[in-house]
Amino acid sequence: MSDLSAKLRRIRALTLKETRQILRDPSSIAIGVVFPLMMILLFGYGLSLDVTRVSVAVVDEDASSDSASLIGEFQLSPYFSVTVVHSMAEAKTLVMDRKADGALIIPSDFTRRWHLGEAEVQILVNGTDSNEARIMQAYAQGPVAQWSEGRSAPGAQPSVGPVVVVDRLWFNESNDSHYFLVPGLIVLVMTIIGAFLTAMVVAREWERGTLEALFVTPMRAGEFLVSKFLPYFGLGMIGFVLCLLAGQFLFHVPMRGSFALLCLASMIYLLVALGIGLLVSTLVKSQFLASQLAMLLTFLPAMMLSGFLYDLRSMPVFIRGITYALPARYAVALMQTLYLAGDVGSVVWPNLLILGAMAAALMILTRLATRKRLS
Amino acid sequence: MGSSLSRILALIRKEFLAVLKDPRSRFIIFLPPILQCLIFGYAASFDLNSVPYAVLNQDGGAASTDLLSRLDGSGVFRRQANLERTRDISTWIDGSRALLVVRIDQDFERHLQAGEPAQVEVIADGRNSNTAGTAMGYLGSAVDAFNGDWRKIHGLPGPPVRIVTRSWYNPNLDSRWSMIPSLIGTLTMMGTLMLTALSVAREREQGTFDQLLVTPFRPFEIMVGKAVPNMVIGLSQSTTILLIAQFWFRIPFVGSFAVLYAGLGLFLLAAVGLGLFVSSIAQTMQQAMLYAFLLVMPFALLSGLTTPINSMPQFLQSVMVINPLRYALDLTKRVYLEDAGFAQLGPDFLPLAVIGVVTLFSAAWLFSRRLT
């Protein structure tokens, strides 16, 4: 009995020490609080995949009233700012100098072919930024359709159809990108606090030799791990709560699944991240290596290979294979589903189970690795 | 002057030894850029090449079958199931088994033959609305192609104005062509800035930095001695990625190496300067690492790598004037894909040089202040 109470007392003392260390180091607070806030603001307000205004150089080879009114349509469009130039060479110079994002060419036979019903305009985009180029391509449809509609004789063939597509975007009817950013953000924040910060902290103790000093005390390896675990788990949950609040009050992301399951999923993922951080730092015992490895094994995958930004199904087979070994993909699937789709059993339980198994395996491995070093 | 140079050279040699003598740290300097370049190159694309979808075809006529077989033949859409009932739709979407469900009503063929708009309903899994939007865009193009053929066969007039798109510098609008040259700057900055920030912090933590400060080295000499090796390491990281881009991903390099390396040199000066600046503020390695991370993260996200700079709020756009990566991305892509020369790249070279000089001098000043 007294054995147990001594154990608890030791854990409590060390946890307290670790907590003080966090509170007194401005960089820990920066990662625990500033980082989530920064990410929330960046993702919420800084990143937008829409090109707001495209500058286009227009070459009017037709120089007719028809081409002039088409250019007028582009000038009226909120998506374009138009510069009229006199030759292709001039347009290309503007694009090279980044004064224009692309060019619109109205060929000299535009009016003639318009009366034959087969007019053509050319859009030249700068493919250096392929995303921007695609968006510009899509935007150009607007003014052109507007123009041809205004010109068509009444009763002419409608420009739509014969088959029209009716889109329904389930779970995100208003196509608000915050809806998928917030669940992904939770995963990113947990990853940084759990793995990156913890890896550095424990590696520092190895590097400075304070761990060896601890090991000559009655302190057991398991107690040491628990006392490292608790404060960083707390810090991770603070990050989680910040993201949760931002999702609710700043971005109004609906929470369609159960709150309890969302918390459970986050906690289990945090355990996995902490496990990776602790294991990596125990194995390499160097702050530099631990931080680089944690970055490579956890943060980058959480960003790139989790389905958060990029679709997993479109990745080559061997990369998709790698993603199955990374906890982030399960966490992102869970968060997105619990937030937006609801408690879908066929998604939630398998992913939770895998994350739980990963957490357990990492705990056991860390415990074994720490014991080995002790002898 | 001569002795100053020899002191700096000695320091540079020592710095190289410190980084490269440990096989594990050699490994960690070159492995991450290579791995990241391959992973980013393959994974970081908004293009889709596999869209699993399910069909609820209540019409079953020849036209709808033709439309669906076009989807199947596109190489992108992969039909997972033919659904029987409307309520199956939610099973497939909710369980993430299909990204899209295409539903064709029973009067589709009738509308089409009558010349009325025939509807195809597409239900998309909006959990990642970006992916869903792209997939719906692909479906829209497939339907457009169907419409074009239908019009032709049935003698209907086509759309009055066709838009023909061509693309400069990246003929197929392959997103990899814009992504991978951008990685030269991005990955090099992540590596170099953190390495530099840590190299001083490590010495400080181990106490060797104080020893360095009591030697005849002047603070500026220490700065140069720290900066040069990290810049050389950074340049070799950039070169590694450049080689992968050209020989693995086979993206043709059309520019001039002189322009590229002049730009990268200035960029690395700025990255190393920022790293030294961070390390002059940080007390410990942990602080150096975390502060460097807090700097690199927004720089990478707001560099134009994933989203265009000019669609960011004005405030952020003005703050990002100090972001060396945005200039480096612009510069590397334009040299790599467009063969831009010094004349066009002035707006990138100048800020990089300014950032480099300002950060190096302020780091040296902060260090010398610590000394007194």
Commentary on this structure:
The complex is a heterodimer of chains A (375) and B (372). Chain A has 375 residues and is an alpha/beta fold. Chain A has two domains: 11-47 and 177-374, no CATH class; 54-150, abc type-2 transporter like domain (abc type-2 transporter like fold, 3-Layer(aba) Sandwich). Chain A has 14 helices and five strands. Chain A has helices at residues 2-24, 26-46, 65-76, 88-96, 110-116, 130-151, 178-208, 210-215, 221-250, 259-284, 287-304, 317-325, 327-341, 345-374; strands at residues 54-60, 80-85, 102-106, 119-126, 163-170. The longest helix of chain A is centred in the middle third of the chain and has 31 residues, at 178-208. Chain B has two domains: 2-44 and 174-371, no CATH class; 51-153, abc type-2 transporter like domain (abc type-2 transporter like fold, 3-Layer(aba) Sandwich). Chain B has helices at 2-20, 23-43, 62-73, 88-94, 108-113, 129-153, 175-206, 208-214, 219-248, 257-281, 285-301, 314-319, 324-338, 342-371; strands at residues 51-57, 77-82, 100-104, 118-125, 161-168. The longest helix of chain B is centred in the middle third of the chain and has 32 residues, at 175-206. Helix content of chain B is 68%, strand content 9%. Chain B is elongated, with a radius of gyration of 28 Å. At the A-B interface, helix 2, helix 4, strand 4, helix 6 and strand 5 of A face helix 2, strand 4, helix 6, strand 5 and helix 7 of B. Strand 4 of chain A pairs parallel with strand 5 of chain B, so a sheet runs across the interface.
Helix content of chain B: 55-70%
- Total strands of chain A: the figure is 5
Order the strands across the largest sheet of chain A as they lie in space.
Answer: 2-1-3-4
The helix/strand series of chain B, from N terminus to C terminus, equals HHEHEHEHEHEHHHHHHHH
Strand content of the residues of chain A, in percent? 5-15%
Strand order of the largest sheet of chain B: 2-1-3-4
Largest sheet of chain B: 4 strands, mixed
| Backbone CA Rg of chain B | 28 Å
Structural class call of chain A reads alpha/beta
Categorize the overall geometry of chain A: elongated
Rounded mean pLDDT score of chain A: 85
Number of helices of chain A: 14
Q: Poorly predicted ranges of chain A (pLDDT <50, ≥5 residues)?
A: none
Rg from Cα of chain A: 29 Å
Helix content of chain A: 55-70%
What structural class is derived from the secondary structure elements of chain B? Answer: alpha/beta
The tally of beta strands of chain B, per DSSP, is 5
Largest interface: A-B, 116 and 110 residues
What general form of chain B does the structure show? elongated
Would you list the SSEs of chain A in sequence order as H and E?
HHEHEHEHEHEHHHHHHHH
